[in-house]
Specification:
Layout: E1 2-6, H1 23-38, E2 47-58, H2 62-69, H3 74-79, E3 88-99
Length: 101
């Protein structure tokens, strides 16, 4: 999972927080994964080549979406026992890699 943004305000290019990832978000995700794999923390993978099977939106917290939509106020959500979090745009990544010999 890669966090792309952490804000209650969805970029104006998106009509809704559940819209699919944009091309820019996908590029940022690929760059973040490659950066990690090439970092000291990711060296244990020994990955020579990364193959991305899929990159998709991780659905945000439903209460954050309800708050964004104006369906409920933060006070109403908390009164119902909901946990209001920042609206996050995150990517789920499925990949495989070939290890170095």
């Amino acid at each position: 999972m890669v966090t792309l943004s952490s804000t209650r305000h969805i970029p104006p290019s998106l009509a809704h927080p559940l819209d699919p990832l944009t091309a820019s978000e996908i590029r940022k995700t690929v760059a973040a994964v490659r950066s990690y794999v090439n970092s000291d923390a990711g060296r244990h993978l020994g990955a020579e080549k990364i193959l991305f099977n899929s990159i998709s939106l991780r659905e945000p917290n439903k209460y954050a979406v309800l708050l964004w939509a104006g369906t409920f106020s933060e006070k109403q959500i908390r009164a119902a026992g909901g946990n209001v979090e920042d609206l996050l745009r995150q990517a789920d990544v499925s990949l495989s890699h070939r290890r170095e010999s």
